[in-house]
Amino acid sequence: MGDFDDLNTRGLVLVGCGRMGGAMLRGWLARGLEPGAVTVIDPHLAPEWLDKGLRVNTGLPADPAVLVLAVKPQMMAQALGGVPRLSDTLVLSVAAGTTIATFEAVFPGAPIVRVMPNTPAAIGQGISAMIGNGLATPAHLDLAQTLMGAVGRVVRLDHEDQMDAVTGLSGSGPAYVFHLIEAMAKAGEAQGLPAALSLELARMTVAGAGALAVDADEDPAVLRENVTSPGGTTAAGLRVLMDPDTGLPPLMARTIAAATERGRELGKAAQ
Ligand SMILES: NC(=O)C1=CN([C@@H]2O[C@H](COP(=O)(O)OP(=O)(O)OC[C@H]3O[C@@H](n4cnc5c(N)ncnc54)[C@H](O)[C@@H]3O)[C@@H](O)[C@H]2O)C=CC1
Ligand SMILES: O=C(O)[C@@H]1CCC=N1
Residue 4: CA atoms inside 13 Å, Cβ hemisphere, count? Predict the structure, then answer.
């Protein structure tokens, strides 16, 4: 039995196939979800999805295994209005902010799992945090784990109120890392490197360091020390980057606090 057998039999419905829905769908299809088992509901579906054998903007299967909600929190109420009531379907939302209670009001009696993934899911390198409601059985959580595990690692949360901080850290985090690449490349240019070379050096440095941070037994702090020769170049750079007042730690703290707070606001607006 393959991981996706139940999904391939009963079907998966994806409401919202934009950047995040598309990233997950790309990962699922690459890992064995059959296109014919997927119903995509999205009024503005990108043309790249039209020739993949998916069921697009058509009637829902009678009893899909899972309904994945990947529309913007602000569009959620409107999107849910078009979904018929389902009997034995797991509702899985990836929306920032929107709480389990909001979905329970729309789908009374349904098992609901709230997940925060990130876009490296498209290449199987995502990380998702998830938590279910009281009606989500171990089997439902396993199904959610199968889906999200197919596109990266999965961690389970103890409390739903951890979800906004998760969103601010790992949900939004890829954007911070892409900006780090942009900033490093610009800084290299400022030191006289050609733009293309500088971008390549920045991109591969972040990719290689990220892979090493995952692969190595040591803490990131030890890996950092391994790069740092006493009196050398890295120490000079880190004196600037690690400054407790003007360096990365206070900047990253403010960044993740702002993103976390926005998640809380989105949750309140949806209630
Ligand atoms: N982009 C990211 O990195 C992440 C996004 N998320 C969450 O994923 C959700 C989607 O975000 P993105 O993919 O970035 O947005 P997006 O704007 O790229 O995609 C949303 C999709 O929903 C579609 N849509 C709009 N109204 C609809 C309706 N009534 N019915 C069906 N589809 C409808 C749009 O046409 C669009 O394709 C959000 O709730 C966001 O919080 C979660 C983790 C990471
Ligand atoms: O920016 C957002 O609201 C979504 C949630 C996490 C990443 N993107």
Answer: 21
